[in-house]
Amino acid sequence: MGRRKLIAGNWKMNGLRADGTALAGALAADSGAGSDVDVLVCPPATLLAPVADALAGSRVALGGQDCHAKASGAHTGDVSAAMLADAGCAYVILGHSERRQDHGETDAGVRAKAAAARAAGLVAIVCVGETEAERMAGRHLEVVAAQIAGSVADDATAADTVVAYEPVWAIGTGRTATSDDIAAMHAHIRALLARRLASGGDIRILYGGSVKPGNAAEIMAVADVDGALVGGASLKAEDFRAIVRSCG
Length: 248
Ligand code: 13P
Fold this sequence. Notes:
The chain is built from 10 helices and 8 strands. It is of the alpha/beta class.
């Protein structure tokens, strides 16, 4: 069995009820997916319930953008993995570079959150990626290796874990890594996963960073690219559908 492609939309801190439910409704009616592509949207926490309603009965899955490592308790402003599952989520994005930057998230913290997510029955999408300075210094492979070693648990499986490679300098900038650079990094991540984990060869590795309808087909054709984590282009139904369709 080959790895099924996964196209995930990360809405980030965008969307009020009217436009979020309209977007979800449009994707529920037509996500652009053939039978061999998984489609996911990750709205902000305030929209999980109405988006779950809008997606009901469709093939589009729902995910959160973060969760706390604890199941419940005195953690003002946080959301637990069990709460996400209860709201209808099947996935949660963890360790996005914006959270690593804005909230000081560490590899160990991401690993703890991923354990909580998996315990709650969610698939953890663990994000890794180097900064521009790290790439310029030729350290991108070692930086991502350290993030994988620290953030991905030793018992992670293809059923409960997805890795997303998002070079920080490509996020929201309109710049994408070249196909050769993506191929080299995804092969590196694949080797790291396969060496350490029993199902490391089956874990999906997504690319993220300025994926658009115009570049998606080329990126999706790169070896070991098992889908995309899409930011800005996931906010327009037509663009997101076109990216889904680019999986072939
Ligand atoms: P953009 O697609 O807007 O570059 O965002 C990528 C991203 O951060 C997805 O998580």
